[in-house]
Design brief:
There is one protein chain. The chain is an alpha+beta fold and about 450 residues long. It has three domains: about 45 residues, Transferase, Pyrimidine Nucleoside Phosphorylase, Chain A, domain 3 (Up-down Bundle); about 240 residues, Nucleoside phosphorylase/phosphoribosyltransferase catalytic domain (Pyrimidine Nucleoside Phosphorylase, Chain A, domain 2, 3-Layer(aba) Sandwich), CATH 3.40.1030.10; about 90 residues, Aldehyde Oxidoreductase, domain 3 (Alpha-Beta Complex). It is about 45% helix and about 15% strand. The chain has a five-stranded mixed β-sheet, with helices on both faces. Strand 4, helix 10 and strand 5 form a beta-alpha-beta unit. The radius of gyration is 22 Å and the shape is globular. The termini are far apart. Bound molecules: uracil. Uracil (URA) binds next to helix 9. Keywords: Glycosyltransferase, Transferase. GO terms for molecular function: 1,4-alpha-oligoglucan phosphorylase activity; thymidine phosphorylase activity. It catalyses: uridine + phosphate = alpha-D-ribose 1-phosphate + uracil; 2'-deoxyuridine + phosphate = 2-deoxy-alpha-D-ribose 1-phosphate + uracil; thymidine + phosphate = 2-deoxy-alpha-D-ribose 1-phosphate + thymine.
Amino acid sequence: MRMYDLIEKKKCGYELSKEEIQWMIQEYVEGNIPDYQMSAFLMSVYFRGMTDEELSALTNAMAHSGDMVDLSAIQGIKADKHSTGGVGDKTTLIIAPIVAACGVKIAKMSGRGLGHTGGTIDKLESIPGFRVAIPTEEFFDIVNKAGISVVGQSGNLAPADKLLYALRDVTATVDSIPLIAASIMSKKLAAGSDCILLDVKTGSGAFMKSIEDSITLAQKMVHIGASAGRKIAALITNMDIPLGNAIGNSLEVIEAVDVLNGNGPEDLTQVSCELAANMLYLADKGTLEECRSKVKEAISSKAALEKLKDMVKAQGGDVSVIEDTGKFERAEYFYDVIAQGSGVISHINAEEIGVASVALGAGRETKESTIDYHAGILLRKKTGDSVKAGDVLGTLYSSSFEMIETGEKLFRAAYTIDPEAKQEKAALIFARVTEEGIERL
Ligand code: URA
């Protein structure tokens, strides 16, 4: 086979065979196909798309390019979730303990922040002492005993995705629905869980800006997962507005603990509970209604909070900061951003809020940057709220006052205050996608 012929075939809109796709991924990972040819192929996919058969073949080839995690040493059903990434998205810290408290095992590998979006592993590392790099045997042991463990991705999980993602990043081919679907699902299939719930974010803070594109992405991922024999569903959720009020690592852990204590922000609580109920449903824990009741009970009984504490303890973290979040170290500087005009907040650009939090030190500007775990933003006003001049829109936290100055400019630019706008609350969940079809909510 020659890579030139495969590029030519895709460029002209013909379907590639499974064997061709497997060969291409294997040769690329082994370094036998140069980046310039793979870049040309990715751009052809960007414009031509992929059939369902091609997409399944690509995803499987990428998943099998490294370790396929075997979770059979863990008893019971294992469930995983994946968010396509957002701003203030700390749902894993809430959902994983809830689902574990309801008897479904969570053996989860999570990622770090990417661009303006945060990552679960960075958030967990803001808990003093918390270890995210854990040998496999210990990881299994923690899940068997505590029912839950969240660790960083092992070095050899879907290496083809690592190479392809880096190439897409510099060839303007990140925002291709089939390439995103293959990237996410290759890692999910390799990570080994029986049930997979996808949280496909849509809106200004997400990769997918429109609901229809998000549904298409969800359908493709659900189809890949189901074809690989996994139980899988997707919820399309709102990322036009940051989720909850906290953006930044330890600030988000504190807010997640608030939800598990029953006093978190309403939007975050609602989305997290619905995601958790859908995970339990996939794991055969009852009807969706019954699963929703189990989720409520796990929060009100504090069973889910106990699970979070069990995990923190097992992974070497300081449980006292979970028991009393006031014990988390605070950023050196904080600054209230005051509204200069009155009206209704008609829009918050979630991506720009994410960029502002990175500028404050909560994310990485470059691969080498170190994170300030206590930096970030607490939103005091969100889309649909009315404001008067002089009200606090949000509080910025950082260890550098210069960063606060930059962050303030970015934060202000993200807000649109309209004296004429009506006070309206946005929907939180737009649709549920399964192999059976799309349910608009
Ligand atoms: N997240 C991923 O893992 N891959 C993509 O391509 C986009 C988001």
